[in-house]
Specification:
The chain is α+β, with helices and mostly antiparallel strands. Helices cover 36% and strands 26% of the residues.
Length: 299
């Protein structure tokens, strides 16, 4: 199929972007486009019929990547491949997840913020943002506001973003001493949508677990966050430093988590029960890996 007819504008200032969205909202609604890797297929299948596409790729202030206030701030027009290439290792969990986003050609056009705004429940970037406690910067007619990633996603491909608002940047906290990370997903082929996946962050101090954040994706209508700090600390106390022992001790807690957060009805790629088994295996392995990484001395 081909997209339904639409108008196309390419402003060079953020204020003009908002103005175009306000104007489009009076005439059937507008959509922001940057990389187009998520939006164009939606248009081609006529699952979305905006009256206007507002291209933000010429807005200079949205092309910046900065290290500021203990965060990596990524502008809305910044390509995924640029972050993957030029900021490798700055945010380890982001670096681990980006190679799983489609293929290199997709990441050369797709944007980090675009993936967040699209809010695909099987996408990697929303899960990473939720796990790391990222903050999205949003601008609309009423001015600018900041939204915690955990509150930004409200359902499958649905966010709390207003029809005349645009995501301008995401702030991703930089790692601190004692942080360890893990990321894994299962897909039929590399680049396919995830059947199930996890992003994990563990923070320790003096051998004590202070945080153990697990965010699952591909198993519900949005990223699902859980803090397993007490469960991981208990497993470590009972099993010591033995990875297999920690994994065994985590079994019941991770099983309970999977039973709670896997809400998909299943599809041709896997039933809900299969996704629970995959999620249990991935979450257990990455929790142990992240815990062990958190104990390593800083390089």
């Amino acid at each position: 199929m081909k997209a339904a007819p639409f108008a196309y504008v390419r402003p060079t200032r953020l204020g003009d972007v908002v103005a175009e969205l306000v104007r489009a909202d009076e005439d059937g609604g507008g959509k922001v486009i940057a990389g187009g890797q998520s939006l164009v297929p939606v248009l081609a299948m006529r699952l979305g019929r905006p009256s206007t596409l507002v291209d933000i790729t010429d807005v200079d202030e949205l092309k910046q990547v900065d290290l500021i206030d203990g965060s990596l701030r990524v502008g809305a027009a910044v390509r995924q491949r640029r972050v993957e290439r030029d900021f490798r290792g700055v945010v380890p969990l982001l670096s681990q997840a980006l190679p799983w986003v489609g293929h290199r050609e997709i990441r050369s056009r797709g944007t980090v913020c675009g993936s967040l705004a699209h809010a695909d429940p099987a996408a990697e970037m929303p899960a990473v943002a939720s796990c790391l406690g990222a903050t999205l910067e949003v601008t609309g007619p009423g001015g600018a506001r900041r939204i915690a990633a955990e509150k930004f996603f409200s359902g499958a491909m649905t966010t709390c973003l207003g029809p005349t608002e645009v995501v301008t940047a995401v702030r991703i906290p930089l790692p601190r001493q004692g942080d360890g990370f893990g990321f894994a997903e299962l897909a039929r082929r590399h680049g396919d949508f995830a059947v199930a996946g996890v992003a994990v962050r563990v923070r320790t101090r003096g051998g004590t677990v202070e945080e153990a954040a697990v965010t699952a994706f591909g198993v519900s209508d949005r990223p699902r966050y859980r803090d397993l700090r007490d469960e991981l600390q208990g497993a470590v106390e009972r099993a010591g430093v033995d990875a297999i022992g920690i994994a065994r001790e985590l079994g019941d807690a991770v099983t309970a988590m999977a039973d709670q957060i896997v809400t998909t009805a299943g599809d041709s790629h896997g039933s809900s029960q299969y996704r629970r088994r995959v999620l249990r295996a991935l979450a257990t392995r990455e929790l142990v890996h992240a815990y062990q990484s958190s104990l390593e001395p800083p390089r």
